[in-house]
Amino acid sequence: MRLMSQIPQKQNQPPNVRVLGRRGFLVAGTTLLAAGTGTATSQPTQTSLQPPRSPGAPMTKYGRPSDHEADVVRSRIRSKTGTTGSGASGTPLQHLRGTITPSGLHFERHHSGVPMLAPEQHKLVIHGAVKQPLAFDLDKLHRYPMTTRTQFLECSGNSAALLSPKAQDWNCADIHGLVSCSEWTGVPLAYLLDEAGIDPTASWVIAEGADAGRMNRSVPLSKCLDDAIVALYQNGERLRPENGYPMRLFLPGFEGNMSIKWLHRLELTDSPAMSREETSKYTDLRPGGRAKGFTFDMDVKSIITSPSPGLNLQQPGVYQISGLAWSGKGNLSRVEVSADGGKSWIDATFDGAPQPLALNRFNAAWQWNGKPALLMSRATDSAGNTQPTRQVWIKQFGSNAFYHYNAIQAWRVFGDGRVENTYAT
Ligand SMILES: Nc1nc2c(c(=O)[nH]1)N[C@H]1C(S)=C(S)[C@@H](COP(=O)(O)O)O[C@H]1N2
Ligand SMILES: [Mo]
Q1: Structural domain total, the chain
Q2: 5, 18, 51, 260: which has the fewest Cβ within 10 Å?
């Protein structure tokens, strides 16, 4: 197989490792299609479609996906034994294109289930080291200016399955589904804190949710005054219950755990709470037994969503390698793709200009010759961080580590077109 580049490939490159760029795809695609080995195998001589002549279904109050898309659902829904609500579910990344996660497919991570909160009774209280404590109901919040941004949310436990000693036979959503991207709309937290009047002693804000466990995290005041929002809308409609209805804290680029859902309390303090979620959990255990706490922004990362397990290749020919890349440390500068397990790389093309703190779609055309291949992607962000190999990551952080895994991942393509999760580098 070949990865096709926008720049002419060196002729001495082995023929089975080339990726085709967009231009290469067009050129090679035309030739190959004509030869009958491209993306289509036969040209229908007449249409077999018979559009119905009778009127179709009526209008609906709230639309939903086609019945034919019934398999596109959240993956690996799992709860802690003995509970219903403490667990997670993943976004079916391999079935989506573009960059927005439909709200009903946003991944979920709940520590004590989804509380059903009545919006008219819900209040956000700001207290502690402030001049005057304030309470905000939804009506009051709607009188403030709001801001809208498309940004990702990733659980820092995402992709941790790749730390298991043996590569699991899992699909893209099972491994990487704890990341999603939405258009979030809400009130900049800075406005609300400013109104409460920040006491000079304050340097942290302890955010607490109204779920049964009252999950809480300490957030640096600087982040709250920078780009934190109290989010009320997700993709244009009110937040879904599972994503924090009626309001959540949203901290762009930070580990998902800190974006407290069902937000009902913000306490300004001079020190962090050292809560369960920032001591026993969501800390990074290092080889020597010491743990690193307060890792805020998520690292640079990329994943190939197609081809991927379950989306097996039907016959040799031209395919699009398509994936998502993001960084919590700024924007992306580059995504490279390899079809030979990292021996050679080629730049993928972004779908439009990369957006900071968002999921970005990348593509590279690839001509598969029917032989085994190893597909990998490697992202670099605007701060100069590049994804390490798995071996380098484990060497650096040790085998006790679990959170914040961002190494390069590989999909193995077999001669019969099957795609499987594997460890390559
Ligand atoms: N109140 C509250 N906030 C919470 C959680 C929770 O269990 N309770 N889970 C956190 C974790 S670990 C993550 S990764 C994100 C997940 O957000 P989502 O369910 O909207 O995807 O919410 C965070 N905020
Ligand atoms: Mo999380």
Answers
A1: 1
A2: 51
